[in-house]
Write a sequence for this structure.
């Protein structure tokens, strides 16, 4: 896994932007106190703003339910009413994205075939392997090859701050097969380690996995929304990918 150098990312308003040829990856921040909560009027307005800011025809997202359900977006009407936590598409001029406020946002891209994906992975999605299901979807629906896929992991609550119960810790150790010293510090979990393993097991190259090494809970240099830190406020980050 390679840590992304934040200084090399473009700053556009309160986004951190990474451009991969005709593909744009965006990580929103909370620098301007914007929130992309789809359940609020303000959040919907902010989502509409993205279409204008990035000049896209369509914006696709889901009613996230901490599942391992992944959809293919091909322009369906009322797509945004679907319940699930992952989207893949080969549509141009389209923005797909996920909402987070401690959970892990993951962007997947295959520049060779022109396929992208966005995944929301909380602990439930992480332990059920939602990123692997998204990879499987890219392979089955679009014939993507693992060696051509790049993974970008966005800001989330990291091992430094994410304490879970002893019962859940034992479940992660049993179901992932990852050594305790790699996966945990005490009861503090690294969801990223599980996601990385799933990608490697699928066949993604290690040097094609990138991480934006920011913790939503304790990072101070960049303001981010954190559900835990804010005692349940409605602030949400939006991590997205656009293919032109």
């Amino acid at each position: 896994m390679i840590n992304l150098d934040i200084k090399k990312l473009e700053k556009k308003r309160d986004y951190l932007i990474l451009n991969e040829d005709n593909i744009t990856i965006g990580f929103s921040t909370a620098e301007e106190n914007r929130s992309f909560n789809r359940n609020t009027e303000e959040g919907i307005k902010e989502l509409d703003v993205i279409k204008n800011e990035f000049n896209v025809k369509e914006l696709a997202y889901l009613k996230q339910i901490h599942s391992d359900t992944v959809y293919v977006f091909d322009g369906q009407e009322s797509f945004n009413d679907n319940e699930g936590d992952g989207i893949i598409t080969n549509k141009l001029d389209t923005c797909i994205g996920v909402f987070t406020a401690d959970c892990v946002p993951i962007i997947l891209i295959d520049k060779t075939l022109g396929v992208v994906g966005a995944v929301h992975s909380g602990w439930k999605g992480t332990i059920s392997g939602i990123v692997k299901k998204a990879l499987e979807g890219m392979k089955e629906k679009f014939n993507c090859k693992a060696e051509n896929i790049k993974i970008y992991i966005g800001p989330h609550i990291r091992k430094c701050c994410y304490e879970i119960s002893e019962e859940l810790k034992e479940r992660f150790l049993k179901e992932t097969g990852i050594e305790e010293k790699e996966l945990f510090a005490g009861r503090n979990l690294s969801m990223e380690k599980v996601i990385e393993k799933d990608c490697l097991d699928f066949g993604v190259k290690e040097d094609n996995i990138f991480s934006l090494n920011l913790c939503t809970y304790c990072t101070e240099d960049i303001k981010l929304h954190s559900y835990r830190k804010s005692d349940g406020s409605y602030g949400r980050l939006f991590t997205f990918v656009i293919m032109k």
Summary: The radius of gyration is 17 Å. DSSP finds six helices and 15 strands in the chain. The helical segments are 41-53, 123-127, 130-142, 166-176, 180-183, 191-202.
